[in-house]
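Supplementary notes for students who missed Thursday's class. We covered one full example, reproduced here. Read the sequence, then the structure, then the short commentary at the end.
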Amino acid sequence: MPTAPNKHALKQRLDRYFWANSTGEMAFLRRVLDEHFASFDRIAVIGGLVRDFAHEGRSGFHSDLDLVIDAPQERVAELAVMLNATSNRFGGFGCGQGPWKIDFWALETTWARRHVQVESLDDIISCTFFDWDAIAYDLKGRRLICSQDYLSRVRRKTLDINLLPNPSPLGNLVRAVRRLMIWKVQAGPTLREFIKEKLDEPALRFIQAKEVELYANPVSTGWMTAAEARMTLLSIAPDKHVAQSEMHLD
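Structure (token representation):
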């Protein structure tokens, strides 16, 4: 499935997936959401799932479910105890629910609030490291939260940085390498500078070890030097014909 042509089409994709999907995994997820998360007034899916549905549709979604909850952190912590969820180093929690791995956190504990204003769910899109992750789906309101030019940037096939300060620069370097290589997209200007600055020899060894540890399809193990890695990553060029041909669809 191609990149969503506009926000209305993307919303329809997400509405169908969450509310009209009769598969066992989605029936199970709806029960989990209804039993454990429905008491919260505002809750949104952020990042991976929404991004993948925008980029490629259902076939592109292979990640976990990330939920941000606009509620006091004490209530979210109580839910974590009830679900036997484990805490992570970013102030959130993770748990397994049937076939789903669900990560969730309270909006007020979002680490990026020290750098940007975070007062409502709509502010969460200012908090992501990558610009392609700066999109959310409000589950109760059944609405998209993203910038006006979000889909245009995805169709240009250029991945860039949305918020540079981050508690895990090496982790995001691993993600940058995999996204650029697997998605065949080019790095935007801020991401290019990040790669030039951060991808040295120790970083390359870290990336290669982490890929072997976590992924069945490592993309960095063939690089002998950091210079080779940087040259490869910074020379990726998307299919300009496809990108330009879709620009009129907004």
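Commentary. The longest strand covers residues 100-106. The chain has ten helices and nine strands. If anything here is unclear, bring it to office hours.
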